[in-house]
Amino acid sequence: MKPTLFVLAAGMGSRYGGLKQLDGLGPHGETIMDYSIYDALKAGFGKVVFVIRKDFEQDFRDKVLSKYEGHIPTEVVFQSIDALPEGYKAPEGRVKPWGTNHAVLMGADAIREPFAVINADDYYGTDAFRVIAEELSRPHTRPGDYCMVGFRVGNTLTEHGSVSRGVCTAVDGKLTDVVERTAIAYDDQHRIAFKDENGVTCYLDPNTPVSMNFWGFTPDYFDFSKREFIKFLDARGGEEKSEYYIPSAVNTLIQSGEATVKLLDTTSRWFGVTYAEDRPSVVAQFAALHDAGIYPERLF
């Protein structure tokens, strides 16, 4: 059974402005998402499911889905603040979506096979898709048998500002913890630095694995996830801006022993348009990948 690619495309790029997902960055106007779909297809994925906002549907079908017709089956599901378990409702005044793991829950009726989760506006690279496709294509005989691509932090930074990354700890190749670190950036000696919760400057080895939201799950994750989402709503559902993120759900399952997450290494270099200043560099990197023959003249 071929794995499915689940693309989180419901968000707007707040720091960058506009719909990053539709920004043409390749030599012929390809979007970052186009490269992900191409890499997934090449790696052996059999279907793509996109989670989007309902009000974006027609634009998305016209500008995005149409180009994949005849290449790979696609499906669309919708994230909205009212898509909640029975008996729950969004608090008055809430406009913010419920976060990445709520977006994942929207795929429960569309996905019946092992699946990978990615962000629509991140470029993950051919090797990353290869390693996760191999892992998802092997037999899975128990619930909670998951994986995550751990990018080397030195392959994920921008020269134009600081970033947040989920810094990973693993034992025997299994993820034990993901700690969100903010304001990671190069210092004046080109070391990778951040300040911890006590304000102390810490340094990361360039090969330290970090989460770029490239997860691999089996369909039982939806049941675990719904259960944990209900707990989240009971505790924080009355807040206007609380969000339910994938790492927090996964951490809970690791701590309870209900899941193991294999940490997959990749040589791929992540990039994306975190800041508007990143755009020229990303355009140049895509041009270089085409010139090097990594990608054909036209993807689709």
Brief sketch in words of this structure:
Helices cover 28% and strands 26% of the residues. The chain has 300 residues and is of the alpha/beta class.
**The CATH homology group name of one domain:** Spore Coat Polysaccharide Biosynthesis Protein SpsA, Chain A
Q: Which descriptor suits the 3D outline?
A: globular
- The name CATH uses for the topology of one domain is Spore Coat Polysaccharide Biosynthesis Protein SpsA, Chain A
Uncertain segments of ≥5 residues (pLDDT<50)? 12-18
CATH class bucket of one domain: Alpha Beta
Q: If you compute it from the alpha carbons, what radius of gyration comes out, rounded to the nearest whole angstrom?
A: 19 Å
Q: Would you mind describing this structure in some detail?
A:
The chain has 300 residues and is of the alpha/beta class. It has a domain at 4-149 and 210-241 and 267-291: Spore Coat Polysaccharide Biosynthesis Protein SpsA, Chain A (Alpha-Beta Complex), CATH 3.90.550.10. It is built from seven helices and 13 strands. The protein has helices at 32-43, 57-68, 100-105, 126-137, 220-236, 246-256, 279-291, and strands at 4-8, 47-52, 74-78, 115-119, 122-123, 145-152, 163-171, 174-186, 192-195, 201-204, 209-217, 260-265, 271-272. Strands 1, 2, 3, 4, 6, 7, 8, 9, 10, 11 and 12 form an eleven-stranded mixed β-sheet that branches. A two-stranded antiparallel sheet has the order 5-13. Strand 2 (47-52), helix 2 and strand 3 form a beta-alpha-beta unit. The radius of gyration is 19 Å and the shape is globular. The two termini are 24 Å apart.
